[in-house]
């Protein structure tokens, strides 16, 4: 029994040494693994920093582009508003000017006609002033007739024409019947006499003719 004790001690010692060696190996492996992890972390940190820097740069570029586009849109919007205000002001000025011209046109529409009638008035005044000086009534009547023709010419130039109603069928659009008479010369419904002349201004009835119509 005493001889077997050293052998057992040796075995135990060997087992302890082997266990210690295994522990040392495991420690070395763990240490190596930890170092590898640290190296990988150190290697990843620059790459992550690069990625963060690139992302920050892209965001900055995108923000600058967005700001530039926004400034461009704001400038265009301001320009369009200025154009709208100018167009509105021009339209208001045009409306006021047109209204003023319309009022002046209505106010002085007869200026041209009156200007053309002034010579007729002058001739009438001369005829009246000379009526008492001249004993020749035929000359006076001739002068008055000339003035009448002058007046008639002015009115005709403006589009005024007298209706030729006598002997034509009665037309209520052009004629105003004041009396119905018996007539051997005309059949029924014919204008036999014009009491007051009717006038057309171009193609519009200015005044219907007052007539007598055969019955």
From TrEMBL:
Bias type Basic and acidic residues, positions: 23-40
Compartments, record wording: Cytoplasm
Keyword annotations from UniProtKB, A to Z: Chaperone, Cytoplasm, Stress response
Pfam family, one: GrpE
InterPro entries to which the protein is assigned, alphabetical: GrpE, GrpE_CC, GrpE_head
Family annotation (CDD domains): GrpE
Predominant location category: cytoplasm
Highest taxon listed in the record's lineage: Bacteria
Residues covered by region (Disordered): 1-70
Listed transmembrane segments: none
A biological-process GO annotation: protein folding
Biased composition (Polar residues): 1-13
Gene Ontology MF term list: adenyl-nucleotide exchange factor activity; protein homodimerization activity; protein-folding chaperone binding; unfolded protein binding
Comp. bias regions, Low complexity: 56-70
PANTHER family the UniProt entry points to: GRPE PROTEIN, GRPE PROTEIN HOMOLOG, MITOCHONDRIAL
Protein's job: Participates actively in the response to hyperosmotic and heat shock by preventing the aggregation of stress-denatured proteins, in association with DnaK and GrpE. It is the nucleotide exchange factor for DnaK and may function as a thermosensor. Unfolded proteins bind initially to DnaJ; upon interaction with the DnaJ-bound protein, DnaK hydrolyzes its bound ATP, resulting in the formation of a stable complex. GrpE releases ADP from DnaK; ATP binding to DnaK triggers the release of the substrate protein, thus completing the reaction cycle.
HAMAP family xrefs: GrpE (MF_01151)
Similarity annotation: Belongs to the GrpE family.
Protein name: Protein GrpE
